[in-house]
Amino acid sequence: MLRSRWGAHVPCVALLGLCAVLAAWADAWRPGRPAVAVLLIGPLLACARLGVRATLTTAAWALALAVTVGVVRHVGVGPQLAVEYLVLLVGGLAAVHIARRSAARSARLRQLREVAEVTQAALLRPVDARFGDIDVHTRHHCAVASATVGGDVYAVANTPYGLRVFIGDVRGHGLDAVRVNAEVADGFRDLAYVTADLTELARRLDARIAPVLGPEDFVTAVFAEFAPGEVRLVNCGHPPPLRLGAHPKVLNPVTCSLPLGLGCDPTQSRYWLQSGDRLLLYTDGLVEARDAQGREFPLFERAPWALSQTLPWEALDQLYAEVTAHTGGPLRDDVAMVLCESASAFGAHRAAPADSAPPAFEARGLGQRPSGSARPTPRGSAPDPAAQSPQGLKFAHPPQGPE
How far, rounded to the nearest angstrom, does the alpha carbon of residue 29 sit from its chain's CA centroid? Predict the structure, then answer.
């Protein structure tokens, strides 16, 4: 404790020593005519880097040194020296005033940041719960301490239409982003319970948040709705979710939609979700994390192993550990992750043909499987229709069933 207290006073002591050195140098440079104003360097440096108390101490010390040198050398106070003493006195008082204003401004900024962080924490409360047959687990990691508050947001609503999960990323940082986050989260929770169609939910949320957005603001988002044996997705300009399990797949939207706030007109995509499958929703801070060479985090190479951990919350922690190992330190952007796991044999609701075969390929970045090495389809599961097209190409008119 004593060492830490001493360390806090080292800069102030160093400035006091600097003032003493300056006083000795000025006395040697002009014997009998001490250069008083040069001692003002100490208080000016103190007000720029230290607090009010340290600045006041340095200013008083500089003035005391100037008076001491004058008394010891028996220097008469002429007009020129009087001006230098006056400059030192006024400059010291000005330095103290600057330090006081700087401290007040820092306190206000710190208070605003604390309010923003508390608000963001309230919006991004951790979720580790089961809703029906779906386990939902969330993680949110803030960027380095010096960064401003980010714009990540997620929400969960267990509605009469099924479990609905939302994840989004507001353009920008700071209090404006937190304000938009609150509006987005509240709007989703209000509309999710009264809007049957998922695409209509996205349109209504787009219209609701438009008045609170600036001319250049927008929100990328993914809406997920879980039903027996499938998940329905609406993607509004957000990084695509990742399905992990027997048939890993990057769930790209059939058609791209503009983000919320820009007049989105989304479409819905449907995908199989078998027992034990996991669905990862995330913000762009995960895939845009870069290493020292500027390479982005290879999510689609690392995620299958990291998210194969038995417990979902351990899987999310392992994935974040992979990201920080890739960057070599704390991230520069916030990261939000939502991991949903199908906990029941949904596939039993949809009987598969006896001769059906599983997909003969995997999503790009997750590896290729030779066409002759397909494993038999698990009983009670159904094939992935999108995988039956060559190289996973999307049809101009996609099939009615989930992919």
Answer: 56
Q: How far, in Å, CA of 259 to CA of 145, rounded? A: 29
How far apart, in Å, are the Cα atoms of 272 and each of 137, 245, 277? 20, 11, 9
Does residue 270 contact residue 230 with C-beta atoms inside 8 Å?
yes
* CATH class of domain segment(s) 124-392: alpha beta
Strands 335-342 and 152-159: unpaired
Tokens matching residue 358: 């599983």
The contacts of residue 315 (CB under 8 Å, 6+ apart) are: 278, 306, 307, 308, 309, 339
Domain ranges of the chain: 2-118, 124-392
Q: Which amino acid is at 149?
A: V
Contact (CB, 8 A) for 338 and 152: no
Q: How buried is residue 96: exposed, middle or buried, by Cβ count under 10 Å (0-12/13-18/19+)?
A: buried
* 170 vs 179: CA distance, rounded Å: 10
Q: Which residues pair with 162 in a beta bridge?
A: 159
Angle between helices 52-72 and 41-49 (to 10 degrees): 170
Q: What are phi and psi of 87, to 5 degrees?
A: -60, -45
pLDDT by residue for the chain (403 residues), tens only, comes to 434 444 445 565 666 666 666 666 665 666 555 566 667 777 777 777 777 888 888 788 777 777 776 666 555 556 666 777 777 788 888 888 888 888 888 888 787 777 766 776 777 788 888 998 899 999 888 765 545 566 788 999 999 999 999 999 888 666 777 788 888 999 999 999 999 999 999 999 999 998 888 888 899 999 999 998 899 999 999 999 999 887 788 898 888 889 998 888 899 999 988 888 899 999 888 887 877 787 888 778 778 877 777 788 888 888 888 888 888 877 777 888 999 998 754 343 333 333 333 333 233 333 333 333 333 333 333 334 333 333 333 333 333 456 6
CA distances to 39, 119, 146, 167, 188 from 185, rounded to whole Å, are 57, 12, 26, 9, 5
- Which are the contacts of 78, defined by CB distance < 8 A and separation ≥ 6? none
Residue 340: HSE in the Cβ half-sphere, 13 Å Cα cutoff: 29
Phi, psi of 260 (to 5 degrees): -65, 140
